[in-house]
Amino acid sequence: MEEMLEPNEMIVHLGPQHPMQPGPFRLNLRLKGETVMDAEVELGYIHKGIEKILENKTYLQGITIVDRICYLVALTNEECFVGCAEKLLGIEPPERAQYIRVILEELSRLQSHLLGLGEFGEFIGFVSMFMYTIKEREEVVGLIDMVTGARVTHSYLKFGGVREDLPVGFKEKALPILNNLKKVIEDYEGMFYSDRIYRERTIGVGVLTADVAKSFGVSGPALRATGVPFDIRKNEPYLVYKDLDFKVCTETAGDCFARVQVRLNEMRESIYILEQCLDQIPNGPLFPEGTPYGRRTPVMRVPAGEVFHRVEDPRGEMGMYMISDGTDKPYRVKVRGPYFPTLQALPPLIKGTTVADVAAISGSMDGCTSEADR
Amino acid sequence: MDARTIIESLTGKFPEAISEAGIESPIRIRAYVDKEKAKEVCQYLKDSLQFDHLCSVCGVDYPPRNELEAVYHIASYDHPVVLMLKARLPRNTPEIESIVPVYWNANWYERETYELFGIMFKNHPNLKPLVLPEDMLGEWPLRKDYEGFPNKTARNLV
């Protein structure tokens, strides 16, 4: 990058530690005045070698490792990992366990979107937004904590089912929180729509068109904001999503405002899904009956084979490619995180914008560098 | 577009390059591709079969067979079929044509596969380490015979 520098240009390193970043990565900006001429992302500051660690852990231990890919979306990471192994084992969790998983994953989506929203507000100088959303997020995290016993890194899913049943009084506790959440989402929307500064900071900023987003491999809210209704829950239903009624939220503008709007609408849909689940959840076992799953077993071997399983993460398409050689440890696990391609699309997207917009664009993608680095 | 149509179209177009094509489930298909033809096949997939979404590129090491495999997962924004395309590469000289001209987002995936497995992607625009520090280049940490840093035995492969 230095070689191309002209006399009136300079290079600014945003990061590896910077308040506008969702995690440590370095963004090298070549600036002419305040305009970004070129940008480059350097990763590796939080590389944990998760794929190698998984090869050296048993399947059961692996569940705790995939939690650490990104603590915010630990439950969907677990769902993807456990789903891979379940496909290889040829088992399916019973209906009650599937409903519990959907409930927790939608709660996880809610808290991830709430934190993403707050962070985005903070990045564009709307710091009180973070205070508002973190308060509501705490309630949702409390609900997850009530079931799994942990606020983050839950290790809750098990092969063929879930570790614990829903506690007594969960529905009674959850419904008022969800109702309150519906109200605050309206409030957030009202704040965003009425705030002139917010609108000027986001409308028309960082515009992705559908064709460009597709060629960048972007998924999740960033893609749906361009009008492409791509959602793994609909395209390739897993768990009981095919029995539930929900719509894929899309916008057409593809700018920062549209991405935030998609997240707000998705939170409404998540609440709707949760209400249906809490209403229809059947009674029954947590593990398939007549199988050893769920009991204490010292060794679990998975039949040889390979599988690619995808789930819908709050940020987009999470996929894992698992190869088993018939032993108790996976031969290879490839984690395809949704933020990896989105982060890759950041340099072309911020080219030609100003430094102030870099934070807005990067923030509206709701990233997690930990997941990109793995 | 269903799995059978895709497989038939693919094997009909590239009878020599595609081998062991099979359908695992209605939404998962797999095939081996000749490493010389990988880019051409990807171009055809993107242009004619709506495979416009590259999910991932990764490597897998098979020391007993003395082979590395480059695995492409290619999906579509329009239909739910995911194609697993694999290319066999010799373990001492793993080289394959880069597919960045076809799928723009292959760039980082190929850089990552290069630094972790030592697979050289020919004609890649910027083939340098992504997540590892520079001094770990040549260690190829995700290969099965990696013993931990610094692994001097692998130095001669750089």
Short description:
The complex is a heterodimer of chains A (374) and B (158). By secondary structure, chain A is of the alpha+beta class.
Labels describing this entry:
heterodimer, A: 374 residues, alpha+beta, Cytochrome-c3 Hydrogenase, chain B, 2 domains, 3-stranded antiparallel sheet, 15 helices, 48% helix, globular, B: 158 residues, alpha/beta, Beta Polymerase, domain 2, 5-stranded mixed sheet, two-stranded parallel ribbon, 3 helices, 7 strands, 30% strand, disordered C terminus
In total, the number of strands of chain B is 7
How many structural domains in the coordinates of chain A?
A: 2
How much of the sequence lies in strands of chain B comes to: 25-35%
What is the straight-line distance between the termini of chain A? 26 Å
How many β strands of chain A by DSSP?
A: 8
Number of helices, where a helix is a run of at least 4 consecutive DSSP H or I residues of chain A: 15
Q: Class of the largest domain in chain A in CATH?
A: Mainly Alpha
The CATH first-level class of chain B comes to: Alpha Beta
Low-confidence stretches of chain B: 154-158
Based on the coordinates given, report the CATH architecture of chain B. 2-Layer Sandwich
Describe the protein's topology.
The complex is a heterodimer of chains A (about 375) and B (about 160).
Chain A: E1 9-14, E2 26-32, E3 35-42, H1 50-55, H2 59-67, H3 74-89, H4 95-123, H5 128-148, E4 157-158, E5 161-162, H6 170-194, H7 196-202, H8 210-216, H9 221-224, H10 232-235, H11 256-280, E6 305-313, E7 316-324, E8 330-336, H12 339-344, H13 346-350, H14 355-364, H15 369-373
Antiparallel strand pairs in A: 1-2, 2-3, 4-5, 6-7, 7-8
Helix pairs in contact in A: 2-3, 3-4, 4-5, 4-11, 4-14, 5-6, 6-11
Chain B: H1 3-13, E1 18-25, E2 28-33, H2 38-48, E3 53-62, E4 67-75, E5 82-90, E6 95-97, H3 106-117, E7 120-122
Parallel strand pairs in B: 2-5, 6-7
Antiparallel strand pairs in B: 1-2, 3-4, 4-5
